[in-house]
Amino acid sequence: MENSNRIKNLPPYLFAEIDRMINEAKADGMDVINFGIGDPDQPTPENIVNKMKEAIQDPTTHSYPSYEGLAEFRTAVSRRYKKRFDVDLDPETEVVSLIGSKEGIAHLPLCYINPGDSALVPDPGYPVYKTSVLLADGKPIMMPLIEENNFLPDLDNIEEEDAEKAKIMYLNYPNNPTGAMASFEFFEKVIEFAKKYNIIIAHDAAYTDIYLDEEVPHSILEVEGAKDVAIEFNSLSKPYNMTGWRIGWACGKKDVIESLGRLKTNIDSGIFEAIQYAGIEALYNSEDSIEEVTNLYRERRDLLVEGLSELGWEIKPNKASFYLWIDVPEDIDSSEFSKKLFKKTGVFFTPGVGWGDHGENFLRIALTVEIERIKEALQRIEESDFVYK
Ligand SMILES: *Cc1c(COP(=O)(O)O)cnc(C)c1O
User: Fold this and answer.
1) Is 138 within a domain?
2) Ligand 1 atom 10, closest CA
3) pLDDT, tens only, 170-184
4) Looking at ligand 1, which atom is closest to the CA of residue 246?
5) pLDDT in the model for residue 192
6) Does residue 12 lie in a domain region?
7) What is the number of helices (H) and of strands (E) in the chain?
8) In this structure, are 33 and 81 located in the same domain?
9) What's the CA-to-centroid distance between 101 and ligand 1, angstroms?
10) C-alpha 202: how far from its chain's center?
11) Which of 98, 126, 322 should be mutated for ligand 1, with most atoms under 8 A from CB?
12) 300 lies in which domain range?
């Protein structure tokens, strides 16, 4: 059967070849140390799991949930935003729950993009932004994120014509894959830009609670007037090791939240209520576990940065998220670099080109590997004849 143009036009899955290489090596008996996995390796905190056990025993949670999410869950989100960012959100009209933030990120273009309309998308970036625009028959306009600009898009460099045509701008800070953070001043500029050109800002804030140094990530909704143009996606996946649970939300600009909700009534039927009760527990009672995971990522980051620097690698520590984004020496292709390292050591660092053309020359190292295995990886690199430069 012939696929629709929509499916045919999806970009190829760039990691397919990598997955094959890793699986083949494993089948050949290689002990692979994989730094490619953007999924926390630790379990969900016990209080959250216990709340789920309790909630699942209550038969009232077994029916269809409401599409917009339990009022108590949306209230918990609103209180969390007040406490963490000093942002006021009306839980009735400015918060919608999502089956993981990816669900909302992927559905948003269907609410605003007509065939041929465009959206501004960061490169490198989480692949869902681009593909969801394509699935809505829209045109992604890539915004390069380069090191000289601290991996922030250069708003002054966006063509006037592109800015005028764009309906949505996706942003993501702290950033996957670069680990970069955005300043409050940058967010102010973004909001001003969005108002000038009438663009919806869709800020993906999945890593706002994963910061490893003093600098604390902002919500874009902290900017005065942000709710006139912006929504923010957020998620329990990363701070609470809950990627498998599928629970997140979007919040901010009312009519956008309403449209996303309206679309969802036609596609899904909301989040299992027992999971929402577990989510409420996470939002109210799990500050300690955030501290635990960030301590863990910090320890791993420091070990890797120190170890690789000692081996002559040029590597800058990430201040937030759980990704190191490292520049490979100029005359080497990052895919080749990654493959060569893997063949010699069984240690896998992901070539950055998988997140977009401007990811070329970089590698992403996910800090989702246990300390003992990090030590093992460093030792193998040291003992191998792999040379960085
Ligand atoms: C992990 C991640 C998410 C979270 O996705 P969920 O669907 O909420 O699990 C969103 N955006 C980025 C950039 C991520 O890396």
Assistant:
1) yes
2) 206
3) 999 999 999 999 999
4) 9
5) 98
6) yes
7) 13, 12
8) no
9) 6
10) 13
11) 126
12) 5-44+288-383
167 and 311 inside one domain: no
Say if 50 falls within a structural domain.
no
- φ, ψ (nearest 5 deg) of residue 317: -65, 145
How many whole angstroms from its chain centre is CA 287? Answer: 20
Task: Give the tens place of pLDDT for each residue, 240-291.
Answer: 999 999 999 999 999 999 999 999 999 999 999 999 999 999 999 998 999 9
Q: What percent of the chain has pLDDT over 70?
A: 100
Evaluate: CB of 124 within 6 angstroms of ligand 1: no
Residues 88 and 234 in one domain: yes
Does 267 lie in the same domain as 177?
A: yes
- pTM of the predicted model, to two decimals? 0.97
102 lines ligand 1 (CB under 6 A): yes
Q: Give the strand pairing for 230-235 and 347-348.
A: unpaired
Q: What region, left, alpha or beta, does residue 135 occupy, with left being phi > 0 and alpha being psi -120 to 50 degrees?
A: alpha
Is 203 touching ligand 1 by the criterion CB < 6 Å?
no
Tens of pLDDT, residue by residue over 120-171, are 999 999 999 999 999 999 999 999 999 999 999 999 999 999 999 999 999 9
Q: Is the distance from the beta carbon of residue 235 to the nearest atom of ligand 1 less than 6 Å?
A: yes
Determine contact, residues 152/180, Cβ cutoff 8 Å: yes
As given in the structure block, the two tokens for residue 222 are 């902290």
Task: Tell whether 243 and 326 lie within a shared domain.
Answer: no
Distance between the two ends of the chain, CA-based, in angstroms? 49
Ligand 1 neighbour 126 (Cβ under 6 A): yes
CATH number where 184 lies = 3.40.640.10
Q: Among the three residues 243, 269, 285, which one is the final residue of a domain in this structure?
A: 285
Q: From the CA of 41, how far away is ligand 1's center (Å)?
A: 15
Q: Which two tokens stand for residue 195?
A: 């108002």
Mean pLDDT of the chain: 96
Say yes or no: 117 and 168 in one domain: yes
Same domain? For 67 and 185 the reply is yes
